[in-house]
Amino acid sequence: MADKFIKIQALYGLLELEPYILLGCLIVIAWIFYKFFLKEVSEERHKSIRNHFRVLLRHFVILSFLFVIFIFMQTSEAQLGRFVRFTPYIAILAFIWGNVVFVKTSRLIVLQYLFLGSMKHGVPLLLVNIFSLMLSIVLLFWGLSHIFTLELGPLLATSAAASVILGLALQDTLGNLFAGISLQVDRNFEIGDWLEITSGIQKATGQVKEMTWRSVTLVGFSDEIITFPNRFMANAQISNFSPGDHPILRRQIFRLAYGANIELAKQLLEQTVAGIGEIRGIPTPWAYVSDSNENWVEVKILYFIDNYGSQFSIGDKVYVRGIAALRASGIELARQVIQLSDTTVSHGST
After folding, report:
1. Tell me, which fold does domain 188-240 have in CATH?
2. 3-class SS of residue 205
3. Digitized pLDDT (tens) for each residue of the chain, 350 residues in all
4. What's the predicted TM-score (pTM) here?
5. Which of 185, 220, 276, 346 has its CB surrounded by the most CB atoms within 10 Å?
6. Is the separation of the CB atoms in 203 and 133 below 8 Å?
7. Cα dist. 86→1, 2, 34, 197, 333 in Å?
């Protein structure tokens, strides 16, 4: 009965030893790629990749088991008797499982390749999932046309009409999908970057946590979860504060009492800020007089940091240590002075 639905000779031709060995070699190549090119990924990424390999190994063991059973049944048809009719079905299971192993291995290789560009924070799975989906669809249609007695012409014509209807119903979803692909291709930001998102009066700041087919998820300064649809992100103004080769400039203001030793104050602030570990030594911190009036002289200290998310804790250290250094040298901060004038008018008697 299987002859009516399955092209048995074509199926058996695919289940030979050479494709099985090539699939095993592809897994070995993926492992070699991991061992030699991804040594510097974070421990979390190591755990993720190893878990992928464990899952892949389990599927390959199942494939090997089905392959051995198929070879045994094919070479022992005379001894199996009526059980020989199950051979095509075992072959189909082996063929399907082989496709699963091939897709998972290819997916793992693509995932590892993307890891090369982001070893610290990891990579979004959007492109990997799209690649896996497209490869699965190609293998599905290829299998239907070569293994099963199905005509794909009418099926494709019907699916084209259904695709138009489905596309109209899923405009927002598809819009987010293609916007997400565009964001991934442009690579203006990646997981772990600190972003400031501005669109009209809306503004949000956070660190990129995840990028999916539908949205981008940020974690704010107070650990709040902020989710933006991909279409919104594609049309918003995005400021990235995590470029690798460009430190982030920050500044703090100290108001000193009028008449204080300004040169000494600038030297103290520069030396104190340079001693904070989170602040870059190059470019060096720089203090200068930015404003003055009859009550105070305003000194501004500029410094550079690498982690945008730590700017508030670093700023706190700059203030605390800067004030302590100034006071230890006898330089006091300015105090607000409010002068009141007597506006009482004396009227003489008439």
Report:
1. SH3 type barrels. (2.30.30)
2. strand
3. 455 567 778 788 888 888 889 999 999 999 998 888 877 777 777 788 889 899 999 999 999 999 998 888 878 766 666 777 788 888 889 999 999 999 999 988 888 877 766 555 556 667 777 788 888 888 888 887 777 766 655 655 555 555 555 555 556 666 777 787 777 777 788 888 889 899 888 888 888 888 877 888 898 888 889 988 888 888 888 888 876 667 888 999 999 988 888 899 999 999 999 999 889 888 889 999 988 887 888 999 999 988 888 888 999 999 999 999 999 998 888 876 555 555 555 554 44
4. 0.58
5. 276
6. no
7. 10, 9, 39, 60, 90
